[in-house]
Amino acid sequence: MTELLYQTDGYLQEFDATVLNILADERAVVLDRTAFYPGGEGQPCDFGSLNVAGVIYPVDKVKKQGDDVLHHLGGTTPLPSAGAASRGMLDWARRHKLMRTHTALHVLCGTVFRDYGALVTGGDMEPLKGRMDFEFETMRGELVREIELAVNKEVQAERDIRVKILPREEAFQIPDLIRTKINLLPEGIMQVRTVEIVGLGLQADGGTHVRNTNEVGAIRVVDYKSKGAINKRIYIEVE
Known about the structure:
The chain has helices spanning 92-116, 141-156, 168-171; strands at 3-4, 14-23, 28-31, 33-34, 48-52, 55-65, 68-73, 85-90, 120-126, 129-134, 161-167, 191-197, 201-204, 219-226, 232-238. With 239 residues, it is α+β, with helices and mostly antiparallel strands.
C-alpha cells in the first residue's frame, strides 16, 4: 500500500520513500509513500524524477493500481532494487499550474451550482486550461459572460481552500457533497476526501488544489458548446 502524501499536503515538492516493488515489464516501481498525483478527477498525473543512490530516473507516468501507486520510469538505466531508498521530486511548475486549474474549475462548479442549480456531467483539464460540462438546457453568450464575471468575483474574494478526510457516513451527511450528475464514489470507499472553498461550497474530491483562490489568477471563458439536449460545455483558461 502506498501512503498518499498529496492528499494532505498538496505543496510537498520533494519526499523520501522506499521502493517496495518492481514491475519490470511496465518499467515501474511501487513506493511506500508518494507525493506524485496518479491522475483522476479529470486532473492528469504528475511528472518529475526519482533519485536512487545518485541515479536520476525520469518519472513520466504515474497511475493508481489498487492500493498501490505505480511510478513509471523513463530511460534505459537498469531499475532500482526493492528496498532501495529514494527521493522523489515533482515537476512543481506543472503541478502548481494544475492545482490552479483544478481550483478554478471548482470555483466554476460552485458558482454555477449556487446561481443556477446545474449539476456537473463531465470535465477535464490540462495545465492552465480545462472544460466542464453542465446540465443546462440552453447556453448563450450573455449567460456565459455572467458566469465569467461571477467566477472571477469569487476568485478575487480570496477564499481559503480546506481539505479534510472524513468517514464515509459523516461525509454523506453533508448537503450537496456530490455535484456531479452521477455519484462517482465507489461503495467500498470508506474515507471520503472533501475540498471546501470557504464561503462558496464543499465537494468530494481527490485532486490537488491551491490554498487560497488568490493563487488561481484570472479565469477566462474562452468557448462554450452544446454537447446534447441538456449538456452544455464551458471551456476556461487561467491567466
